[in-house]
Amino acid sequence: MSGDPAKGPASEGAEPPARGGALEVFAVALGLGLTSFGGPIAHLGYFERTYVQRRRWLSAGDYAGLVALCQMVPGPASSQVSFLIGLRRAGWPGALAAWLGFTLPSALLMFAFAWLAPRLDGPLPQAILHGLKLVAVAVVAQAVWSMAVKLCPDLQRAALATVAAVLLLLFGGPLMQLVALAVGAGGGALLCRGPQSQPVPPRLPVGRRAGFVFMAIFIGLLIGLPVAAQAAPRSMLGMIAIFYKTGALVFGGGHVVLPLLRDALVPSGWVGDNAFLSGYGAAQAVPGPLFTFAAYLGATIAPHGSGIGMTALWSAAALVFIFLPGGLVALAGLPLWNWVGHHPTARGALAGVNAAVVGVLGAALYTPIWTSAILGARDLAVALVAFMLLERWRAPPILIVVFSVASALVMAWLR
């Protein structure tokens, strides 16, 4: 069969000529980037209402196929779906426009927070930063709970999640995270096999040959960037290698980026634990993808004394390279979907990886999040109320930020 994108079932193919313009795609995506609070699952709901119900850019079945694909591969699912919808609507310029529109609002806000945070000093700003750490406790606890319900519905996957958490709590470190994911993949291939039909993604201009090219780029950067960074490990290239590898390993939702980045950046001294967790808490207060936390980290990592232009360059590099692997693997997955989506062993391995991700995130909930944020009974009470607001009453994340920061300010005043 031909691998030409314009022919044959490999591209199943080539899609009809673009039916919209990149500016139109950018405007719609920008509106979503300014208003989509609540994390990736909520984002997918916003997308369905906007792209399927209101604008009718694609059918419900086509949308379900894109969502299924992006949830099966590493990377930020909502951003990948947005990117592929832009590709379908307006070709490659539309794909870039969709990513920029959805990502820029939160990225700019996180960059501004990184620029402001070092200038915050004194009891009042420190109380605000502690409140943001309490936000992280509640948000990650709620993510662990909801992901466990969905991704560990049986004894086999619950056991894989437990093994992953125990490995990380006992040994820790980035290497052990890879081991935990590998154990999940192997265990899933053995224990979680079972064919389940999935919706098929719509036709897009990516054929089999192009899919292999994108996968080759993905793997080449994953191997080549760390090798190249060895020549200058504390340079921008070293930072880029870290963010690219992190983006390539994120299964199961944006919150999983937290333990991966923390273990890569904090022990090696790129960023301090307090600055890391404060930025993660602030990321809950902005709309758009959680991966824009990278914009904050890139700006924080920038060499001391850098002007705003150089700081922005470091921030942009971190942002682009944490998103890039997810985009590449989503494009590569389009022509490979029929095999991955229906091969029992492959599906089992992916189910095992997703279960291990729950364990990875559960270990991160304890350390460093819990151990650095919960300093007494009052902190615990605030975190529990914030968790219940999220889980029981479905409060928006911005309300959790306001409640936690206000509570931290009150506790600081009482002290």
Determine the mean pLDDT. Answer: 85
Give the helix/strand class: mainly alpha
Distance between the termini: 72 Å
One letter per element, helices H and strands E, the order comes to HHHHHHHHHHHHHHHH
SSE arrangement:
Layout: H1 22-35, H2 40-54, H3 60-72, H4 77-116, H5 123-151, H6 155-170, H7 174-191, H8 208-229, H9 236-249, H10 257-265, H11 273-283, H12 293-301, H13 308-342, H14 344-373, H15 377-391, H16 397-414
Helix pairs in contact: 1-4, 2-4, 3-4, 4-12, 4-13, 5-11, 5-14, 5-15, 5-16, 6-7, 6-14, 7-14, 8-9, 8-13, 9-10, 9-13, 11-12, 12-13, 15-16
Brief summary:
By secondary structure, the chain is mainly α. It has 16 helices and no strands.
Defining traits:
single chain; 415 residues; mainly alpha; 2 domains
Structural summary, described in words:
By secondary structure, the chain is mostly helical. It folds into 2 domains: 16-101; 104-414, no CATH class. It has helices spanning 22-35, 40-54, 60-72, 77-116, 123-151, 155-170, 174-191, 208-229, 236-249, 257-265, 273-283, 293-301, 308-342, 344-373, 377-391, 397-414. Helix 2 packs across helix 4 (77-116), helix 4 runs parallel beside helix 12 and helix 9 runs parallel beside helix 13.
